[in-house]
Design a protein that fits this description.
Blueprint lengths: L2 H6 L3 H4 L1 H18 L1 H9 L1 E2 L2 E2 H15 L4 H4 L6 H26 L4 H11 L6 H8 L4 H28 L7 H30 L1 H37 L1 H28 L4 H12 L3 H12 L4 H29 L9
Antiparallel strand pairs: 1-2
Helix pairs in contact: 3-4, 3-12, 5-11, 5-12, 7-8, 7-10, 7-13, 7-14, 8-13, 8-15, 8-16, 9-10, 10-11, 10-14, 11-12, 11-15, 12-13, 12-16, 13-14, 13-16, 15-16
Length: about 350
């Protein structure tokens, strides 16, 4: 993150994101109750089982994250590999199996909610962590390197880990649809992100790309996120009201999963003697999820108004306050000298 961004910080709109999320959820529920025709129209607008409105919104949620991919930054991995290795272990071993175990413990017999937990816990974050890392005053160079690496590893590893955990849970899923979802919602934004980045930098310059284009698409991404929430909750509003116990049911493993994974990352970064700036980024990235691909996959396999889609959306609902809380907890632990490593 360049110096200008550091000085300007986040705008008021971005800082109040948790509030907008709650408002959009409420708007979606009200629409499901008082304007069901809107939800019916949205649900019918699909091609090959993929909702066109949701697909468009999810693309604009994914695309800005792909612009952060910096292949040149990946060459720096050898310089300080410890934080990256710890993050990869948390993202691809600890978090998925913790989520899987909690899903089997608390959601036996509820296939779609179990699948929602598996989708969320198996998807390392690539976008929002840049915001959380900035707020926590972490090492943003490490943040960019790790998110760039996560972008590549999701494309390769997401479908296999989901298939594995679903298989040992006896959850039948359409593997082809899963692979297509990854290709559409990760592969296409990734390719377009790389191509548009090169084209824009070539024609407008790198400074314009960073200071003008990135902020604009970032705001579009947030708007797409909030629109997606309104649509999802308008489609699931009746399910939420008539089966409110489902929300409580899926919230238990989600919250416990965050507590366990965050606790693990706090302990392992202290044990391995990371400094604060590296430790806090490792904890943040290792504890968050790529809810966009989880929501997209749930919709592609089970449908827009499915319980699985609702379950993945609840993952987003809980992740925002957890990550905000983690930012403040990390700053508190910094004052208490939790991380005692030598700054890099």
């Amino acid at each position: 993150m360049d110096e200008t961004t550091k000085k300007e910080g986040l705008g008021l709109f971005e800082k109040l994101l948790p509030i907008w999320i709650v408002i959009c959820m409420a708007v979606g529920i009200l629409l499901s109750l008082y304007a069901p025709i809107i939800a019916e129209t949205i649900e019918n607008w699909q091609v090959g089982g993929i909702s066109i409105p949701i697909g468009i919104c999810l693309f604009f949620m994914m695309y800005p994250a792909m612009l952060n991919l910096q292949a040149s930054e990946l060459k720096k991995l050898a310089k300080n590999p410890k934080p990256i290795i710890l993050t990869l272990i948390s993202n691809w071993i600890i978090a998925p199996f913790v989520g899987w175990g909690l899903a089997r413990l608390f959601l036996p017999g509820n296939e779609q909610l179990m699948f929602a937990i598996i989708l969320l816990s198996s998807s390392p974050c690539t976008a929002m962590v840049l915001v959380w890392g900035y707020l926590a005053d972490g090492n943003q160079e490490q943040n960019v390197i790790t998110t760039s690496l996560n972008t590549v590893t999701i494309l390769i590893g997401y479908a296999p880990i989901v298939v594995l955990l679903s298989g040992i849970s006896n959850i039948s899923i359409d593997v082809i649809t899963l692979i297509i979802s990854v290709a559409i919602f990760i592969g296409i934004p990734l390719i377009l992100g790389i191509l548009s980045k090169k084209l824009i930098i070539k024609t407008k310059g790198e400074e314009w790309f960073k200071k003008k284009y990135i902020p604009i698409v970032g705001k579009i991404s947030i708007f797409a996120l909030l629109t997606t929430l309104i649509v999802l909750f308008s489609l699931n509003g009746n399910v939420m009201i008539t089966d409110f116990n489902l929300l409580l049911l899926v919230s238990v493993p989600l919250i416990l999963g965050f507590i366990i994974v965050v606790g693990y990352n706090l302990l392992i970064t202290r044990f391995t003697k990371l400094a604060y700036k590296e430790g806090v980024i490792t904890v943040i990235i290792g504890s968050s999820s790529h809810f966009e691909i989880a929501i997209a996959t749930a919709i592609a396999i089970y449908g827009v108004g499915s319980v699985a889609a609702l379950g993945t959306t609840m993952g987003l609902f809980w992740e925002i306050p957890v990550m905000v809380g983690l930012v403040y907890l990390s700053k508190y632990l910094k004052r208490k000298h939790w991380w005692k490593g030598i700054p890099m």
